[in-house]
């Protein structure tokens, strides 16, 4: 059984189909059709809902953290122990919520189909903002598309909603909601079981290891932003899933003198502060990683585990010399991330083995990253590049150069690195290294970019890296376009 709050209503579910998304649960099971389906792939934001969960800040104060999610990519099992809020829950005692009122007064709704999603993103923005902030507003709304092109009044509504925001029913009932969430906090493995399909929800790494050993055919579910597409886009059935999002051990970020250790189930939005502090380019790239809704769900371990050749984090992590800790039963092994990827969607992971955490070394001052895509926000890379050189007295003593989108896997450019190591760091060396990239990669052409464009972009990004190290005042990183 799993338990969660639907606004303030306690829901206990056991026999639901584990392949059921929150979107369809709201629309078909509890009669709340305000949440819309636009794309069923997490691109349009029409299905946005907000999930609240208990959170303790660094000062030890408990509160409810509200986050926007794409309900079309969220399976119901991930709600265990949390609070689900949909657009119907905002109106209170006959009065519109302040974010809804702002949309009305600023004329933010046109055809109206996308409006519920915008309202829920605004609600989450308001809950996480102390004052109007245009940058945060753009970030919060980047995952919501309006086909009527009505963004200006919606941004005006965001400013109004976050300016002198009044207390609402959620603020007034926060203490009560915290108490109710504590009362339903999971204490043992939860389960949804429809007879032919099941999803298990363990609470510890040890329980996960035991379950995965018992069900090696199970699919691991973290954020679900990739896995859920098999259900919503390809109409496949997932007979057994194991949801790892309630395992606190796998959601920790530990900061050591020489490294960061990031739990594999840590949401990308939670990784931002630590990674941006150590490597600003990594943080900047995370801001361009899909939408805020996706970053609130998607995990760093998931972005590695799905072995996509166009995943944004693996090239950066490979260039930094990151390692992953793999767990099977009570046995752990540490593997260099670059050795995890074998071929297209093929990895070195053994049966019943899972990524427990990612180890990111510190201290690489010359690390830079670049993403080439057709749009600034919410787009997949055509080419993602990461460069990490060590230069002593003008001579390159070590080089790690990695790319995504250039091969069947995220991959180091070994021939390029061989040209760089031991050479003088100058324009002539860079040109030789650029030429060597043709020996490292034979990229494919697809709808994102041609093979010729990809190779040219890879070379130009290396030149860009050289120019920026020579003129560090230039701040144009992570902003390239096709």
Short description:
This protein has about 475 residues and is α+β, with helices and mostly antiparallel strands. The protein has helices at about 20-30, 100-105, 115-125, 135-140, 150-160, 170, 175-185, 205-215, 230, 270-280, 280-285, 290-295, 300-305, 315-320, 415-420, 425-440, 450-470, and strands at about 1-5, 10-15, 50-55, 60-70, 85, 190-195, 200, 220, 240-245, 255, 260-265, 325-330, 330-335, 340-345, 345, 355-360, 365-375, 385-390, 395-405, 410, 480.
Describe this structure in words.
- By secondary structure, the chain is of the alpha+beta class.
- Among the domains are: 2-184, Beta-grasp domain (Ubiquitin-like (UB roll), Roll), CATH 3.10.20; 366-470, 2-Layer Sandwich (Enolase-like, domain 1), CATH 3.30.390.
- Helix content is 32%, strand content 23%.
- The chain is built from 17 helices and 21 strands.
- It has helices at residues 22-29, 98-105, 115-127, 134-141, 151-161, 169-172, 174-183, 205-214, 229-232, 268-278, 280-287, 292-297, 300-305, 313-319, 414-420, 427-440, 451-470, and strands at 2-6, 9-13, 48-56, 62-70, 83-85, 190-193, 198-201, 219-221, 240-243, 253-255, 259-263, 323-328, 331-336, 341-343, 346-347, 354-361, 367-373, 383-392, 395-404, 411-412, 480-481.
- A five-stranded mixed sheet has the order 2-1-5-3-4. The protein has a five-stranded antiparallel sheet with strand order 10-11-16-12-13. A five-stranded mixed sheet has the order 20-19-18-17-21, sandwiched between helices.
- Strand 14 (341-343) and strand 15 form a beta hairpin.
- Helix 10 (268-278) runs antiparallel to helix 11 and helix 16 (427-440) runs antiparallel to helix 17 (451-470).
- It is globular and about 70 Å long.
- It starts with a strand and ends with a strand.
- The model has no long low-confidence stretch (mean pLDDT 95).
